[in-house]
Design goal:
With 181 residues, the chain is mainly β. It has 3 helices and 9 strands. A 6-stranded mixed sheet has the order 3-9-8-5-6-7, with no helix packed on it. Strands 2-1-4 form a 3-stranded antiparallel sheet, with no helix packed on it. The protein is globular, with a radius of gyration of 17 Å.
């Protein structure tokens, strides 16, 4: 599909989360009416609920995809000791369908960056021609120190076919006066 991965390299998504790949699909991510584009800013409050995600590949309507969402900057970008923090895993997503049509292995967790600017990365993998993800056992028991590359290797997913990320940072607390009534 000829999409550039340059912005993923500049944003260090390639390197910190995934290896270089040849884009063969597109991920569309919407939080309400706001569409995610690489490097855009999205407030945690806007991303609290699971987004609409659609994976568009070649016109091969029989393809299934796996979607992984991680934060490689947890707990802080300067000391990412929990890299990667797992936010979401959905498998068996039919090509062209919303992620809700797949099988959710790990429930969605919205961004909650405690410090600094965090990257939230969506990675799509095309599943092998045999269909469902091979050998998916119980979902990861912890979200800290997830490894997208290892997950892809363990489940025979190969390199990604698409990736996109957004930035988010801690929101200021609302300082509205509370009614005393």
């Amino acid at each position: 599909m000829g999409r550039s991965i340059g912005v993923l390299t500049v944003g260090k998504v390639i390197g910190d989360v995934i290896d270089p790949f040849a884009p063969a699909a597109e991920i569309i991510v919407l939080y309400g009416s706001k569409q995610v584009s690489n490097g855009c800013d999205i407030k945690p409050s806007l991303a609290a609920e699971r987004p609409y995600v659609r994976i568009l590949g070649a016109s091969d309507s029989g393809s299934l995809y796996t979607l992984v969402m991680v934060d490689p900057d947890a707990p802080s970008p300067s000391e990412p000791t929990y890299r990667e923090w797992l936010h979401w895993v959905v498998v068996d997503i039919p090509e062209g369908s919303d992620a809700t049509q797949g099988r959710e292995l790990v429930m969605y967790m919205g961004p909650c960056p405690p410090a600094g600017i965090h990257r939230y990365v969506f990675v799509a993998f095309k599943q092998t021609s045999s269909g469902a993800v091979v050998g998916v056992g119980p979902p990861p028991q912890v979200r800290a120190n997830f490894n997208t590359r290892r997950f892809a290797s363990q489940h025979h997913l190969g390199l990604p076919v698409a990736a996109i990320y957004f930035n988010s940072h801690k929101e200021a607390k609302n300082k509205k006066r509370q009614s005393q009534y």
